[in-house]
Write a structure and sequence with these properties.
Blueprint: H1 3-23, H2 31-47, E1 71-73, E2 83-84, H3 87-101, E3 107-113, E4 116-123, E5 126-132, E6 138-140, H4 143-146, E7 162-169, H5 172-184, H6 193-201, H7 206-210, E8 215-222, H8 231-240, E9 250-252, H9 255-268, E10 276-283, H10 286-292, E11 302-306
Parallel strand pairs: 2-11
Antiparallel strand pairs: 1-6, 3-9, 3-10, 4-5, 4-7, 7-8, 10-11
Helix pairs in contact: 1-2
This protein binds 4-aminothieno[3,2-c]pyridine-2,7-dicarboxamide.
């Protein structure tokens, strides 16, 4: 077989196995099979460097450490969310939406992941840039570090061009293991998984980020084309293309349904393998989102219900 064909075949297979293992958490082959194919690809790319491309699964852990992060400007600002802290405030928010629209829209309720907001730009199906939110307009290019996150695909299942917004986070187990290790060697501990994730993605040496077992969930699609008509459809679209999307979201028609979902997670959050600090509620339809628009710093069509600070069990 032609080397270039074999390389393409290995990449497709390794991307699919990586997706099953890191995104679906349902590997279809033993690790030894994955490693065997990865070693074959590494060997071919070593013998034929001209066949190596940035989106190859061998390129996850980048080259030399950077001297500094390059600043990037977000084409579409990464806004913060307004907050509500009670059922009353949530009902007020829903009533304002009903008044503005003249009817009750469909809402999507999702988990609010407690990590670091990031932007991923894909061009023709390839990850070309990863950046922090920064101040919402200007962030930092951390592509090398985000490429080390196994649940972030370097190549989509279709050659689409769009931007994904999501949260890079450290699962609770990774956080505990990291702090156990730091305690063992006398290094300062991280206060929580969010700080640990942020600290890991601020590393100029991507080998350190790669060692921190970070993960990612997408929660927003920014695209020039009218790929989909609503937020819940955008989540299904991203899932289909191999992007990690949490399955824990639901559509709701009333404030009561939204509150039921919130109450479920007030108790259930302790069992999740990652930290959440609230529930994000969005108007599902893009037309309604367009109609509702934005305040100076937040969308009018979305709000975060923040969980009460957990009593520290002394
Ligand atoms: N700042 C924002 O717009 C968001 C921030 C977050 C977050 N930290 N986690 C989840 C979502 C979500 N499910 O939409 C959002 S949206």
């Amino acid at each position: 077989m032609e080397m270039a064909e074999r390389v393409e075949e290995l990449r497709k297979t390794l991307n699919q196995y990586g997706y099953e293992y890191y995104v679906l958490d349902r590997p279809s082959v033993p690790d030894s099979e994955y490693d065997r194919l990865m070693n074959e690809l590494i060997q071919i790319e070593t013998d034929y460097p001209e066949l190596r491309t940035p989106d190859s699964p061998t390129q996850r852990v980048g080259g030399a450490p950077l001297d500094a992060f390059v600043k990037v400007t977000h084409d579409t600002p990464m806004l913060s969310l307004g907050n509500v802290f009670s059922k009353e405030e949530l009902v007020e928010w829903v009533e304002r939406i009903e008044k503005d629209l003249g009817y009750t829209p469909t809402f999507v309720a999702e988990l609010k992941f407690d990590g670091l907001a990031v932007s991923l730009k894909y061009e023709n199906g390839r990850l070309v840039r990863g950046a922090t939110r920064g101040d919402g307009t200007t962030g930092e290019d951390i592509t090398q570090n985000l490429k080390t996150i196994r649940s972030i695909p370097l190549r989509l299942k279709e050659d689409a061009t769009f931007e994904v917004r999501g949260e890079a986070y450290m699962p609770k187990r990774s956080f505990e293991q990291l702090n156990d290790e730091r305690e063992r060697v006398g290094e300062p501990l991280f206060a929580n998984p969010r700080n640990a994730a942020a600290g890991s993605l601020r590393q100029l040496d991507s080998k350190i980020a790669a060692s921190r077992n970070l993960a990612f969930f997408a929660y927003g699609l920014v695209s020039q084309d009218d790929l989909v008509a609503s937020h819940d459809e955008s989540l299904d679209y991203l899932k289909r293309l191999g992007v990690a999307v949490s399955g824990d979201y639901t559509t709701c028609k009333t404030a009561d349904e939204l509150w039921d979902y919130i109450e479920t997670y007030v108790t259930k959050r302790g069992e999740l393998p990652y930290e959440i600090d609230g529930i994000v509620i969005k108007v599902a339809g893009y037309e309604e989102q367009e109609q509702l628009g934005f305040t100076a710093k937040s969308p009018r069509w979305a709000v975060a219900y923040k969980f009460p600070a957990e009593e520290v069990v002394t």
